[in-house]
Queue: 2 jobs
Job 1
Amino acid sequence: MDDPVLLTGASGRVGQAILGGIADDYEWRLLDREPPTGDHPGEYVVADITDYDEVRAAMEGVGAVIHLAGDPRPEAPWSSVLENNIDGAKTVYEAAVDAGVEKFVFASSNHAVGAYETDERTPEMYRDHHELRLDGTELPRPTNLYGVSKATGEVLGRYYHDEHDLDVVCVRIGNLTEGHPPIDYERGQAMWLSYRDCAHLFDRCLRADYDYEIVYGISDNDRKYYSIDRAKDVLGYDPQDNSAHFEGEERVHGPEA
Ligand SMILES: NC(=O)C1=CN([C@@H]2O[C@H](COP(=O)(O)OP(=O)(O)OC[C@H]3O[C@@H](n4cnc5c(N)ncnc54)[C@H](O)[C@@H]3O)[C@@H](O)[C@H]2O)C=CC1
Ligand SMILES: O=C1O[C@H](COP(=O)(O)O)[C@@H](O)[C@H](O)[C@H]1O
């Protein structure tokens, strides 16, 4: 990817995890409505993703987009997810198509499919003996309006792929936690995504060839109810971390997760 990569929501947790791993590998154009707080690679654009003109200007000459900006709160109210996550995503997709961008990586969420975690299945489905694997072919089953907004972002991607030839990969991110998996939280351990696996996964999203994909973004945890086979097969994802290698806050194996 020789052309700049536009990273929306660059100042947030996922953006910082990505830049922490692959800052030197691309020419970045970072976009966030918050101004930068420290050093950053590339150009930094302070803009709101609901403003088409601002986003279109930031999109000029861009080869790929990683779209993270939005309200990440599972409890976010409809007014916020409608504006930031649905209208915002639509605006970024639209500007990408208008600017002739090739690849679009959309930050979806486990909350788009949270209702598969039924009372009958939990907590057993969070444990490593359980065989259920969601693989991205299942229909969305959101547990909250935030999840509805993420599922809508995936459907917007389907539309912009089918009608406007944009290559789109939607990453249903699990639980990104720095340094170690969530403690005393089986669900979070099953869907843990380490910082280095996060950076590697988004790197693969920028380098691989695909049409329209939905993949799960978790580390190679022994406990898992999301399949990472599609991410491995289509993107070449090769995760290094596994929540089973940690006990509490103690790291048992592997550096800098
Ligand atoms: N952190 C996690 O474990 C997960 C995150 N995600 C998704 O990944 C994305 C990033 O999440 P985080 O980094 O955790 O959130 P965050 O809140 O740390 O970062 C989001 C960034 O987007 C910016 N932003 C929000 N609304 C904006 C707008 N209208 N215009 C411009 N910038 C705006 C914020 O200023 C912030 O810097 C979100 O879309 C979230 O839904 C999905 C699943 C799990
Ligand atoms: O989509 C998201 O999911 C993660 C994990 O969900 P949780 O229910 O285990 O907290 C969440 O931490 C993050 O804020 C959200 O954007």
Job 2
Amino acid sequence: MTKNINIGPLVRLQSLTPRSPWHQCLRTNTNCLHELETECKRKNRSFLVGSCEMGSSVEQSILVTGGAGFIGTHTVVQLLKEGFKVSIIDNLDNSVIEAVERVRELVGPDLSKKLDFTEGDLRNKGDIEKLFSKQRFDAVIHFAGLKAVGESVVNPRRYFDNNLVGTINLYETMAKYNCKMMVFSSSATVYGQPEKIPCMEDFELKAMNPYGRTKLFLEEIAKDIQRAESEWRIVLLRYFNPVGAHESGRIGEDPKGIPNNLMPYIQQVAVGRLPELNVYGTDYPTKDGSAVRDYIHVMDLADGHIAALRKLFDDPKIGCTAYNLGTGRGTSVLEMVTAFEKASGKKIPIKLCARRPGDATEVYASTEKAEKELGWKAKYGVDEMCRDQWNWANNNPWGYQKKP
Ligand SMILES: NC(=O)c1ccc[n+]([C@@H]2O[C@H](COP(=O)([O-])OP(=O)(O)OC[C@H]3O[C@@H](n4cnc5c(N)ncnc54)[C@H](O)[C@@H]3O)[C@@H](O)[C@H]2O)c1
Ligand SMILES: O=c1ccn([C@@H]2O[C@H](COP(=O)(O)OP(=O)(O)O[C@H]3O[C@H](CO)[C@@H](O)[C@H](O)[C@H]3O)[C@@H](O)[C@H]2O)c(=O)[nH]1
């Protein structure tokens, strides 16, 4: 029976074996429903088709690389709430164990039992092997990677080693243990400076820096692997600009050092850790001269991963497919400052500066493909993003650390 898991409708049944008397949910091929029904009746067990949600299908086990990081922690909360069992591997290069403890606190003691954490580095194949050798994973969500554009320009080898070698090790181990479903964290950076907006998934791709090149190469690698071995199912999620935090204010983004990105920077100005925000570029051909991006609430992004997993489990023809995760709306830097001031009641002093080299003028997503094929659409707007970012900042002015 189990050979047909992960295809077709959901079936909930009382275990067929007296040794395990609890209820089970599994996904099965339509053709074997009749067989299953007959067997259940014969053993006087209950049998209900489509009686439970996908997320509650028994203990689908997901490996989340980089799960202690910003997007990882928010996604893990949602995965646990949806009934998945989650294993995190993270080397804590850009995160702290406290973030994982807060995830446990948020989901409560029962769901926490379904979460385990391993400190490990994807560059060491042995660290990945250890996990796969002791348990089966249905799919992997692969967040682990370095993401600072400026640092990648100064030290490209670190980026190629970490992002490329780490991911290749992961694919090798997944193949060895026959786990061939992956959701990969790609980025809108693969569109470079797009010639048209909104960005559509079939646009020509080009990277503008070594970090962007790692994402582009990894998209190509994913496509080649899937082309060669058609049983792989890989979803490439191209995130636009993730911001905001969990509504509880218990988890959020906590970059080490001076933030590179707009919202963490604004947040640190608001709590008094930095004196003012440098606004890079005031002469762009945009509504107010500042650059435009598609900011997306991290909880929407987290839900996008659940939608992508569902797609992987449900669609044997998915192959290797890319989806944009954005809102489809562009917001300028100055508009973002105003929205944050409104949400926080704090004045954000700004300094108008020259453009930041390598920055695109205006980027936002076409969201049609994700809406149509993943059934996912962002719920939150800029006001909610700023509200939740401020709630996190106000409650944790020094992030996960205590004030130094
Ligand atoms: N945040 C963004 O603006 C953004 C936008 C587009 C794409 N992405 C991509 O999404 C992913 C997650 O981003 P994030 O914002 O949560 O970043 P993050 O730095 O907060 O999280 C990444 C996590 O991966 C871990 N990690 C890095 N290298 C590792 C390795 N070799 N082995 C094990 N763990 C490792 C880090 O310690 C960290 O906890 C990254 O791949 C990033 O490139 C992020
Ligand atoms: O202190 C700052 C920081 C940023 N900006 C501007 O704000 C905009 C957004 O910048 P940022 O938050 O750094 O995002 P992006 O440059 O759009 O890049 C982010 O979004 C990409 C697409 O998802 C990811 O690939 C990158 O890793 C991630 O850094 C840009 O115009 C910046 O010049 C400022 O004016 N002042």
